[in-house]
């Protein structure tokens, strides 16, 4: 059972890499993998409000 979970973990990792690419930071890669973050295109959001102009 444990080997199956490890296998599924790495399959998920490779699918994410193929779909989104890999960052240059191993910590970020691990965070994305463990939390299952997904990219959501801007056009999928509704009622987006503009708050301010400028940079960061």
- If you average the pLDDT, what whole number results? 76
Q: Major sheet: size, sense and barrel closure?
A: none
Strand content: under 5%
- How far the N terminus sits from the C terminus, by CA atoms, comes to 47 Å
How many strands?
0
The total tally of domains equals 1
Approximate shape: elongated
* Tally of alpha and pi helices: 2
Helical fraction: 40-55%
The SS-based structural class is mainly alpha
Unreliable residue runs: none
What assembly state would you assign to the polypeptide chains in this entry? single chain
Question: Mind explaining what this structure looks like?
Answer:
Keywords: Signal. Residues 1-23 form the signal peptide. With 56 residues, the chain is mainly α. The protein has one domain (2-44). The chain is built from two helices and no strands. It has helices at residues 2-20, 26-35. It is elongated, with a radius of gyration of 16 Å. The termini are far apart.
Topology:
Blueprint: H1 2-20, H2 26-35
Signal peptide: 1-23
Keywords: Signal
Concise overview:
This protein has 2 helices and no strands. With 56 residues, the chain is an all-alpha fold.
Properties at a glance:
mainly alpha, elongated, single chain
């Amino acid at each position: 059972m444990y080997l199956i979970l490890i296998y599924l973990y790495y399959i998920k990792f490779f699918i994410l890499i193929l779909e989104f690419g890999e960052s240059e930071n191993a910590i970020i890669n691990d965070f994305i993998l463990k939390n299952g973050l997904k990219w959501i295109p801007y056009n999928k959001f509704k009622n987006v409000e503009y708050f301010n102009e400028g940079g960061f």
